[in-house]
Structures are given as structure tokens and as C-alpha cells.
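// run 5 | inverse folding | seed 20
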């Protein structure tokens, strides 16, 4: 990851702050994608030593890298059922009842479709 960050910063002539922002965005997106399919706790446990190795190569306020890891893992964990342990428990509990499980992206699309179609189910009082 360090080689990718340094190559991109040299190629696009990024400043030190730009390199830090690119590193944070890369960590956030990679963490979100990977933690969607890997449980959050093992992924963070593996990522901590990698971030420790990356921080000395960056300059500036590197605390943003830790926040990027945290945000990416949290958002990615919400993407699929296997991303977070709580979702697995909820999925099993919902599977034992007559309620069908709907993932959040489908729910967002259905609510948006319903809203923009004109029905506006969620009205303010």
C-alpha cells in the first residue's frame, strides 16, 4: 500500500497534504470493501500493524488515517450480512419467523422509488 501511495503522489505531483488525503481515502475505501466480506474485528486486527508501518511515510496530521480506517470498516460492515456479527444474529432470528430479510441497499432504493413516484409514504405531520 505504501508503494501505491508514493507512486500516485509522485505521478500526480501531490503535495504532502494531498498525499495524506489520498492515503486516507484509499484506506477508507479498501477497508469498506474488504470489511463487507470479512468480519470487522479480524480485519482491524490485521490492519493495525499495516497502518503503523504506513504512518512514518506520511507527513502532517496522521490521525486522519486512523479515522479513515474506522469509518471504512464501519461502513463496510453494514454492507453485507457477514460484515458484522450482529447482522448474522439478526439474520438468523429473522429467518426463523415469517418476516423476510431485506438488505439496506434494496430498502433505500424502494423508499426512494416510492418517494419520487409521488406516494410520499413518509409525510411530516
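// decoded
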Amino acid at each position: 500500500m505504501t508503494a501505491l501511495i508514493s507512486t500516485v503522489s509522485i505521478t500526480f505531483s501531490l503535495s504532502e497534504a494531498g498525499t495524506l488525503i489520498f492515503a486516507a481515502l484509499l484506506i477508507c475505501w479498501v477497508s469498506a470493501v474488504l470489511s463487507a466480506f470479512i468480519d470487522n474485528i479480524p480485519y482491524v486486527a490485521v490492519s493495525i500493524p499495516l497502518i503503523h508501518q504506513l504512518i512514518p511515510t506520511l507527513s502532517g496530521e496522521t490521525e486522519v488515517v486512523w479515522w479513515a480506517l474506522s469509518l471504512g470498516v464501519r461502513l463496510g460492515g453494514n454492507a453485507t450480512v457477514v460484515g458484522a456479527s450482529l447482522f448474522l444474529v439478526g439474520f438468523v432470528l429473522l429467518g426463523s419467523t415469517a418476516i423476510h430479510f431485506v438488505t439496506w441497499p434494496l430498502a433505500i432504493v424502494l423508499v426512494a422509488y416510492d418517494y419520487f413516484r409521488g406516494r410520499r409514504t413518509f409525510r411530516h405531520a
